[in-house]
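Usage example:
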Amino acid sequence: MKRRNLLKRLAQIVIVLFGISFLTFCLTHMAPGDPVLAMYAASGTIPSEEILDETREALGLNEPFLTQYVNWLTGCLHGDFGTSYSYSRPVAELLLARLWPTLKLALLSLALMLVVAVPLGILSATHRGGIADYLVRSLTFLGVSLPNFWVGLLLLYIFAVQLKLLPVVSAGQGFSKMILPAVTLAFAMAAKYTRQVRTAFLEELNQDYVTGARCRGIKERVILWRHVLPNSVLPLITMLGLSLGSLLGGTAVVEVIFSYPGLGSLAVDAITSMDYSLIQGYVLWIALIYMVINLLVDISYGLMDPRIQEGG
Amino acid sequence: MRTQWCKKAAAAVMAAVMTLSLAACGGSGNTSQGGDSSAADGTHLNFSCYNYSNSMDPITNVNSSWCFLRYGVGECLFRFDENVVVDYALCDAYETEDYITWTLHIREGVQFSNGNAVTASVVKASLERLYDAEANKTGNSTPSQYVTFSSMEADDAAGTVTLVCDSRTVNLPGILAYPWYGIVDTSVIDTEVIGTGPYYVTALEENSTIDLARNEYYWDGEVPYDTIRIFLTEDSSTKAMALKSGDVDLVENITTASDLAELEADDTYYVSTTAGVRLGNSYFNFNGVLGNDALRQAILYAIDDATMCDITVGGMYTAGCSVLPSSLSYGYDQLTDPFAYDLDKALETLDAAGIVDTDGDGYRELDGQRINLSYIAYTSRNLDEFAQAVAITLESIGIGCTVTVQDYDTALANQSAGNFDLITSNATTVPTGDPTGFLGNFYSGNSGTYGYYANDQYDALYEQLLTAADAGEQLELIIQLQQILIDDAATLVHGYYNSTFASRASVVSGADIAPIDYYWITTKIHPAA
Amino acid sequence: MKKAAGFIKKNPSFCVFAVLALAVIAVAVFAPALATHDPYEAVLTNAVQPPSAEHWFGTDRMGRDLFSRVLYGARTSLTASLSLVCIIMVAGTLLGIVAGYFGGVLDAVIMRISDMMISFPGMVLAIAVAGILGANMTNAVIAIAIVSWTKYARLARSLVLKIRSRDYIAAARVTGSKTSHILWKYMLPNALPTILITGATDIGTMMLEIAGLSFLGFGAQSPTAEWGLMLNEGRAYMTASPWLMVFPGLAIFITVVVFNLLGDSLRDVLDPRNE
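Running the assembly step on the lines above writes:
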């Protein structure tokens, strides 16, 4: 990727982050309920009106909206995302502690998904119109149509309760705690990816060079594994980046079902207890991580794909 | 050619799936082995419970102080035995002549889990901190509800703390056994909450897990487990599933009736249940629309307590009409309930009071305002199910009712602030060994945080109870107070809660739940032989 | 009549799925007639009963008839997801056409906002929005709409850009056609087929997202009959009363499958590129 492009992307990230920070700040301001009261509520105390007002003054909540926003933003730029009401700990610390578990879960589910999706996608593409294709396509259809929380509940019921193979409560267990949540997450994704792999493979199979190679009598297997596979899998990398990003934010439902202590369940807790600084920090962090991952993916994509390098 | 490729691919897919499932099995196998090996290294207990508070500091609020005791981290000067009788704990002797000045001797040689000695001055500092926190509003615990002191003196040489009460307090040991009065090491309280219990906290992940380890300095006998992990679990069925799957060895209060029935029927599990001393009720807010007598009476008529206790919550509660449980000896049989379940009477009462639907929207109006009750509930101990069942019933007789389920801390704050029409509650009625304190919730001096109930006659009788010394007179007063509350439709009584502990019999022994459930993790719970 | 027969012959799968989708919609519309019980009538004494002749899907913990509740759930889910798709389709398309046709500052602002939404995992913001605005069905719809309209805006914009410089548009402009006329007569019809296909395929996804929010407690609130919420309520009784989990789940699944299939086959009908 050219330096100019890179700079442009970085500038874009900054603008988008700025917008998102403003949006979340507005939202928390529009929210019904008094954040100061919520803050005291979280510690189980209802103070007098004077104390409430003092606290508002001390927290700068009596300032005009824009001043508050600028103050908050300045804090964020210095790494200070405020203090969570309900946990009475710095937001950054809380988020950091939950980031790794969620990242681990996301990576594992991506790996699981690839193991299933790539072979099935290829199978389906190479047997286009055949029984295998038909079966795989029906499966993917089921995959995208099943609610993931339902799948999660069913898996929990079958594997943890009936078969007792895996833990019910994911908090504080070893590797095995991640299997069911990861499988649940991988389930819907695998369906989506299988379709993608199939489409990409079919497109690649229709390329002239494949026909040419066939005419030259090169074995079908060689064509598939040496040429078609690498070319068609490459675009998946971009998608994987996007998926990793949305997984970091999209694991909430699954984390709640399996009591998995990650970012998603933290966010749900934050929202139910109206912990505004934690919500703001969370949204901002996720956006940042998401965009950085996408940037990295684009850069690595440029490095890996010879065609893009030559062109650029 | 084509079919062969198909077979191969199918085989490849199968292989992939099998590898995956093997990996899955392998994963679980490893953990269970891991669990075994850690058991070989030392004794370990996995315990699952509802998370009532993220704090374990007794000053924060009621629940945090309970967690302090329940997790086996802290102790009080006194404690209750299995028969709800006060026993010595950190205090091993006391003297009092007039029930005003009490001299408590602090047990010698007791150490906090960090090795610091429990001296008379530390005990004094710990109690002072509790009262200071209440006075300057840094905590929501209200120790002055039970007793206030005009002076506290510590004599480290004699090992005694002398407490001078503001009024005659016969039941001071019982009061000091209440979790608020748990003793903390004040020298380190700014960084951590250290008590004298059999275990201490080594790691805490909020809303997720708490790790405990043996307190090497424990004073009262051997501590059975090297380490304990507490899993904080929101819903009851997850707790039950975790027990069944072997993830945990011990759980408190399975509140899904079906799960409990299953556990009780299975020899693999040991289920300990006690007769309820906890009241499940919903407070009415008298400062709102529920200040209307007819409306409250109609609600009591409309609610089918027996069905809700037996079926909706599957027998987790025993139905009743008074605020004091029928299992306790406070004259339940002598009470009469004029508002027993009778749906027709509910409708009659509403119609007679002019609370009718005038604009035809299906909801009744009071003073021209459509009634829409705000009902706050929290998910603990089936309370949300009661709330929903009540709301559904009320809607069916034209009283609008919206249930909001909140976490406990938020609900408690809303209750204190009076932001509710109805709010669920589940509390021990004999927190200090007698019901006087609990009846005080309806005394107009205290009722501000319980819906502003006020009745002069009640207040007078209650003040009389506070000074009554004769047991017969006390009982007579307590019965009268209960009857007034019933006649005034002062609160919506759901029933009396039966506490339970369920454990895996092959792994854990001695897991009996105490009638007063300030105590969950104790030294009585130990590995099965 | 002949035309219709020809259409059916040409697009058999579309017709089958359209009929199925109509059947689902009919269930929602005629739920009061089809339901065997009042879905909100709680007979507390009849709680958590297994499926029987009286209660085909059993009863929930408040003693309400699950079959009737599942039928009424179709109303909630369909109303919410159809209106959601309409909102994002209309709003997104209009903004996209405006951005594409006028360009300049307007384009930049609209597209930067859409960048913001697209470079961000949608569900997170939706949960945050739903949580902050307060949990109910309308807010859940608003929340998902806020993060989902961008797809349509981008699509409409790119379609408009493709034809903006064509001769007949220039001709229309020169002959003094009003801008609104151009937008309405040329731009919209051009973008519509693609937008409709996207909309149709989105219905299933949106249904899942709404149910997901309800499941987390940020959507429909008790006692509303909504599938996601019903699953959440039934979760606690999973081991002893699996029907509480099975039927609402199946209802979501079947409905989503039908609408997904319909969307796919609609693409085959409308998309000229398709063979």
